[in-house]
Amino acid sequence: MTFDDELDAAVRARWRALTEAGLPSLSTHQGASNRPHVTMSAGATLELQGRPDFRPFPVRLGAPLFFPRRSGAVLALGVVPGVALLELHDRIAALVQGASDHTRPGFWTPHVTLSRRLTREQTAKALDTLAAIGPLPDGRVLGLRFWNDGTRTVSDLVDT
């Protein structure tokens, strides 16, 4: 799920600020697929059975979240789960085969990833860096895309 230009730029500004603070960030990921987004479904062998009904809708990014992992924490911004977002997620879940349990309705945490592999010692600096930037603008979800891990390609499903 992708955003309007203003919200996309605001997330990218946070990526850059983390990098400038000497912290890991997605600003260093130079792949063509890298752009601010919310992952709606994930799995090792996803199959998409059609295209979801989609209309752009407002979205609000929220507080920072940490997802602990052995390789270091993932730092993300939460996404306020409004009705339009949850209904879209349900429609997508109905069309996807092979989704991981953590991305299924009722178990999914909508978020925008900012950084991966943060050490425990780096977390306070990351939060201070984000706080210094100030609040995020509200935005709109304008597009949907599908990442095929097998072919390592992105296909636009909807992009308005």
Strand count, sense and closure of the main sheet?
A: 4 strands, antiparallel
What helical percentage do the residues reach?
25-40%
What's the overall average pLDDT, rounded? 91
Which residues form runs of ≥5 with pLDDT under 50? none
Please report the distance between the alpha carbons of the first and last residues.
Answer: 12 Å
Oligomer: single chain
The number of E-state strands comes to 9
Strand content: 25-35%
How does the overall form come out from the CA principal axes?
A: globular
Q: Helix and strand succession?
A: EHEEEEHEEHEE
Looking at this protein, list some descriptive labels:
3 helices, four-stranded antiparallel sheet, 160 residues, 9 strands, three-stranded antiparallel sheet, alpha+beta
Structure commentary:
By secondary structure, this protein is α+β, with helices and mostly antiparallel strands. It has three helices and nine strands. It has helices at residues 5-20, 83-95, 123-133; strands at residues 2-3, 47-48, 57-59, 61-67, 73-79, 96-97, 111-118, 139-148, 153-159. The strands form three sheets. Strands 1, 3, 8 and 9 form a four-stranded antiparallel sheet that branches. Strands 4-5-7 form a three-stranded antiparallel sheet, covered by helices on one side. A two-stranded antiparallel ribbon has the order 2-6. A hairpin with a 4-residue loop joins strand 8 and strand 9. It is globular, with a radius of gyration of 15 Å. It starts with a strand and ends with a strand. The model has no long low-confidence stretch (mean pLDDT 91).
